[in-house]
Amino acid sequence: MLWSNPNRGITSFEFKNNLKSLTKYMKLDEYETLVKQHRPNLKPISVHTYAVSLKSIEPAGSENAKWIEDTKYVLKQLEKYKETTRKNTLNALIVVGGATAKYVAERDKYNEMYAEQSR
User: Fold this and answer.
1) Taking the domains of the chain in order of start, what are their residue ranges?
2) Which of 47, 79, 84, 104 has the fewest CB atoms within 10 Å, measured from its CB?
């Protein structure tokens, strides 16, 4: 039985633990490891930032990073974010080997937009 006593309710801790048992996702440290494998000289804060960016668009139930190759999915997920977040997430994707021409072109588009706004 998932909930031990439905009459008493559950604590936040119990809910989080039950949710974790129902789903499998890559953990943040696994994304950090992935980033470090591709860019071993990055500062820890940059590694963490890239990992958080990747984790934020991870599909539900993802047990590996194969979803990075699905450019259609990724670009659809990025639509809900501001342009600077899109650019930063695309940079993270490119760092971990998702350097498809589509990701690079999208990132460059946002770099140009940002440069124009900064003038």
Assistant:
1) 12-118
2) 79
